[in-house]
Specification:
The chain contains seven helices and no strands. It is mostly helical and about 120 residues long. It has one domain. Helix 6 packs across helix 7. The two termini are about 25 Å apart.
Amino acid sequence: MINKFIALLDRWIAASSGADRRIEELEALHRKGLYAIRHSPEVDVAPADYCEAAGLPRGTHWPVVVAAVLDEVSNSQQSHTVETLRALVQANFLSQQGMERTLAFMAKANPVVKTLIFDRRLDAA
């Protein structure tokens, strides 16, 4: 999953066309991440530079990074990030306080974009 995500981001940066297909690829990776959260004994943590690029704290799990990028580029009314964080809490990979700290960090890292995302999508997740 990690190598696919890195390759996807590299392609995203390199090309400006075909954005819909890349969004579909991100959505597929997001679904795989949710599956991994629910069915794997552990979930990988993303490298610090990817966490920071996604506006997330260091030590964030890979599926959250994928979800945050997907939230930034898609027009979905649902927050993939909140959905993923809730799945991590339910699977005991993250505490409720950890989820709240991550959301607060995201809002502080990019207040305008994150406020729009979470004001519009938090209840939908």
